[in-house]
Design a protein that fits this description.
With about 120 residues, the chain is of the alpha+beta class. It is about 40% helix and about 15% strand. The protein is rod-shaped, with a radius of gyration of 22 Å.
Length: about 120
Amino acid sequence: MKRIFVLLAFICGITMSVNAQQPKKPVTVKISTPTVQCEQCKKKIENYMKQEEGISKINVDFKRKVTTITYLPERTNIENVKTGIANAGYDADDVKANEDSYKALPTCCKKPEDQK
């Protein structure tokens, strides 16, 4: 009887261990990117974000000014994603663009008031 109890406890422990190690599902978020102006902006953000760890899919809709990103939550989080977009030179929701990166953007990718 004691052996059966030990065996059941061992099996339950293995089952719980396997369940705890299952990877989390990818998360898809939509981020407002109001400073995205053109196809060149789209390519710049997509290329920059492909280098970020944990990003599995990205789509920039420059006409609607929305960026849809799918990421792996065990590798990154929403704040890192927004910071990555800001580091590329674009506003991302409440995170403002990195000033130096924004200055390095081509004129067509800057805000209309800065295109002078």
